[in-house]
């Protein structure tokens, strides 16, 4: 079966993509606005780009009216943000914080998270997470027909530091089995990375 996309609506393409590219890692992003309000929002169009420099990508769609989402606006204005890994200990609160709160209301406070200072960025991180990446804006790319449309803000961020709980870190590596991150599937479905396996890289004899 072949599914062409040229005649599909935006909503139809979205559904096909989110049920095809999975599981997707979830970035729980904290930013601050000009009044110091800390915003928290989850995004699953997120991944690592390269290690030198240490760049991650974060794709953030526009609001229904075509305006910037709070996270995009704050990153573009303040040039800093923090990405947290989602796991089973915090996924419920993170999901609760995805409600459409007004810009002057902190989702972090509403769901009961607490904050801690970062080392290299002014944006605070969340205590109730096991892994957090301090990021600075590296590049912003608008993806769409024009910036007045409901396109996407592709944020490239440089990771300048990592906060990780001690039980996860050993010999330069972070334990996936102990972290047990949560990934996003299609619709309202999620998955926990609870089982891993290894396959050695092949060698040419």
TrEMBL record:
SUPFAM superfamilies: FMN-binding split barrel (SSF50475). InterPro entries: Flavin_Rdtase-like_dom, Split_barrel_FMN-bd. Keywords: Flavoprotein, FMN. SMART domains: Flavin_Reduct. PANTHER family: FLAVIN REDUCTASE LIKE DOMAIN-CONTAINING PROTEIN, FLAVOPROTEIN OXYGENASE. Belongs to the flavoredoxin family. This is Flavin reductase like domain-containing protein.
């Amino acid at each position: 079966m072949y599914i062409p996309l040229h005649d599909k609506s935006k909503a139809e393409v979205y559904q096909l993509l989110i049920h095809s590219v999975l599981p997707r890692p979830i970035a729980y992003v904290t930013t601050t606005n000009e009044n110091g309000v800390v915003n928290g929002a989850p995004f699953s169009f997120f991944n690592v780009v390269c290690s030198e420099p240490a760049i991650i990508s974060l794709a953030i769609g526009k609001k229904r009216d075509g305006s910037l989402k709070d996270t995009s606006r704050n990153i573009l204005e303040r040039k800093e943000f923090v990405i947290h890994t989602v796991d089973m200990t915090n996924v419920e609160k993170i999901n609760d914080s995805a409600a459409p709160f007004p810009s002057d209301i902190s989702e972090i406070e509403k769901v009961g998270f607490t904050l801690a200072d970062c080392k290299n960025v002014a944006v605070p991180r969340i205590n109730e997470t096991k892994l957090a990446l301090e990021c600075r804006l590296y590049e912003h790319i608008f993806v769409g027909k024009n910036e007045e449309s409901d396109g996407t803000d592709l944020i490239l961020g440089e990771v300048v530091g990592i906060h990780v709980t001690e039980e996860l870190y050993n010999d330069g590596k972070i334990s996936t089995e102990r972290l047990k991150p949560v990934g996003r599937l299609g619709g309202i479905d999620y998955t926990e990375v609870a089982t891993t396996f290894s396959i050695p890289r092949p060698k040419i004899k």
